[in-house]
Write a sequence for this structure.
């Protein structure tokens, strides 16, 4: 059972989040005192942290920046702010995702599930041929090369890898991207697959991603 550490100063929201997550099968810890919250984040040994930006003692973004000096535990920022600049700043400080209040409970649970999946994959020592898959970093690495993938390219590659040798349909790929909060249409999917294929080709993996009669794609 994954443990989620909730940092939220509003008591009603904190209680609501805890109940939602417990009902979804997660273990939760939601401290009401935030004076030594950085120590609490480190000691919690959580699988994921939900972190509010607007905290009374310390700004959540500053707290995240300090936390990243000693931990790579996944963090999702939860905030009432809607500024794109806040989202960019949070991501630059090491947030794994960002969701605004009032949040849709179903969307929040999907985001949490997606981040936990990416985190577990990043520590699973998965390899495609001689390339180690680092989903959290969005990279495929070997001793002499590193392929940096965009978020969309990594999601596409991971699904193809998980079902290597099978045809993955275009609809399945678009659903996977949607579950990760990445709206994408049919044309954009084609572009992303083409860019992924090109990066693999440049690294010497020619024809790694094959199109199958417009039904979908297969990773060889």
């Amino acid at each position: 059972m994954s443990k989620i550490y909730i940092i939220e100063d509003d008591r009603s929201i904190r209680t609501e989040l805890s109940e939602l997550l417990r009902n979804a099968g997660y273990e939760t810890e939601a401290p009401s005192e935030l004076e030594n919250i950085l120590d609490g984040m480190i000691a919690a040994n959580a699988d994921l942290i939900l972190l509010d930006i607007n905290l009374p003692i310390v700004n959540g973004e500053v707290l995240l920046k300090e936390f990243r000096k000693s931990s790579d535990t996944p963090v999702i920022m939860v905030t009432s702010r809607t500024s794109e600049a806040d989202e960019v700043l949070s991501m630059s400080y090491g947030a794994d995702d960002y969701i605004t209040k009032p949040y849709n409970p179903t969307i929040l649970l999907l985001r949490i599930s997606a981040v936990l999946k990416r985190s577990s994959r990043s520590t699973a020592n998965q390899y495609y041929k001689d390339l180690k898959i680092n989903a959290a970093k969005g990279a495929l690495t070997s001793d002499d090369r590193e392929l940096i993938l965009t978020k969309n390219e990594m999601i596409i590659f991971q699904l193809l890898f998980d079902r290597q040798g099978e045809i993955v349909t275009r609809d399945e790929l678009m659903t996977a991207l949607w579950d990760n909060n990445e709206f994408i249409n049919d044309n954009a999917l084609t572009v992303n697959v083409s860019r992924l294929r090109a990066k693999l080709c440049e690294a010497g993996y020619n024809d790694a991603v094959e199109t199958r009669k417009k039904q979908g794609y297969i990773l060889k």
